[in-house]
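Anyone else keep sequences and structure tokens together like this?

Example one:
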Amino acid sequence: MNEHLDGSQELLVVDNGSRDSFAEAAAGWKGRHRLLALGDNLGFGRASNEGVREAAEPTTVLLNPDTELLDPGLDRLAAVATMLGGLVGPRVLNPDRTIQPSASGPEVGLWPWVRALIPGSLQPDALRVRTEPYRLERRVPVAWLTGACIAAPTATLRRLGPFDPALHMYGEDVDLGLRAAVDGVRSWFDPTICRLIHHGQGSSTVVYGSREAWRPAGTLNWRAAVRRAYGSRREWLAWRALRLNLRLRLIGKTLLGRATDRDRTALAGAIAADPPPTLPPP
């Protein structure tokens, strides 16, 4: 942040009962900063909500602590969110600079099956916009955005929650996008104004013991969010499409002689995610 931002932004750090020197790290920011120590691990969603309640600026960017800015685009991201009056997410990259999935098309209906049957790298842009929009190079509306970085008007985030505290970790971002759409708030993916690296799965390693062990719990939360938004039958079909997607990906990588450990874990996690929990009304 010190390298790419001018210091006019206020940094609000919400601590979820960590044991490291978060206050000292936050004090390294050259601009204004405030600390909110929760004293216990309330979960990603509840902690984020507390931060949004304390935010003093008209626009808020929810930013994971395991992200790394690559340019000064965070201000532009906030400005676009203000202009559009919705949720806006940037281009998110893996540590090796490959594109990280950070936005999704519809979770029910025809499009999950298209996503399952046709690899995104082979799809024309007309399909990608409804299946894997994170591959595109222009601003497009999406169903939901990764929670690693979301910009929106502060008042809009407060009205939405933004996150449902019933989801302790994983799936909160999917649920936010689906609920926002019902509330008339659109989600936008815009790769043209901001890029950042998301290292990812740090919490999964702490909680579950490895980077990929989050998948059963994460898929259960995804199923719960989709089920609450669309009903049990459409969610069940979406879950089957997800399993087909992962199975075909595993088969393809096996035939190509590529590493398949992560794909096997993902498929096993998706199969094990049954039955999904029932979420209360948001």
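And example two:
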Amino acid sequence: MSEAGSANHQTIAAAALRSDRFRLEREADWKRLEDIVVNMEKGRLRRVSDEDLLALPGLYRTVASSLSIARETSLDAATLAYLEALVKRAWFVVYGPRTSLVAWLRGFLGGGWSRAVQTIKLDVLIALAVMIAGTVVGWLLSASDTEWYYALVPGQFADARVPGASAEVLRNTLFGNEGQKGLGAFAAFLFSNNAQVSIMAFALGFAFGLPSLLLLVKNTAVLGAMLWLYHGAGLTIDFVGWIGVHGTTELFAILLAGGAGLHIGRAMAFPGDRPVLEAASEAGRCAALVMTGVVLMLVVAALLEGYARQLVGHTPGRFAIGGSMLAFWIIYLFGFGKRAR
């Protein structure tokens, strides 16, 4: 055998010896962790002793450390694969979710979402005041100068719905069969726009909540401009009924999203005795739970817009649907799952 071949053989033998020694020194911990993980994965918790449960976090860190060393020292592929698989499985046991999806949904809908909303009640009230102010601003600006109406309302949806349009034309956009196609497109735009506003109002909350409030003003100013237009034609009640079918749910979702964003912003601006990051993290967990519900509300609003409003063509029926949904959300979110004081 050549000197090069002999040296290569010695290198391989040394690596194998090093790998065997590494395994023998730590294998007892690996096997113990694997036994715990297998029993917990199969739901056999009674087979796991209290001592093993207490040792589980430490064993996980020990095996994770072994994996790190194995990677750095380039141990054999079989050892690396075994440790990687074991660490992944152990992570889910140590840090993974403790409940099933069904159990989580039961807790979320059974009071978790409501309590989160009640936690940010002050922020929701501030957001509500801002949305009302935005609606009033949109109305007043459009009444003072019609150019503001065109600036606020997207041009592609201001075809028949423009200042100077007759009451009959505007009525047809609410009830007429000829206007149903354009009406559906406008409603689809409202849903898409409101979904984007909800997400952005929450996402921009980190900037002390100011961008969230500005988004609420901008979005509701469009509603104010539309209200002004239909009011001028004597169709205020009919327009409110038309928008209310899905709007009571959709606008409520925007309200909660704005409140969630503001909650994070207020926590960062006024953290109290806590570090800013800690305050923001705590507020973020609560706000994220609220936003999960906001997504659900937007889905419900889409169904109402796509079916209920199209099937109900008279104002009293539309008010009944929109009013019922508004009452449901208020009772469910603020009267159910009261927070512990």
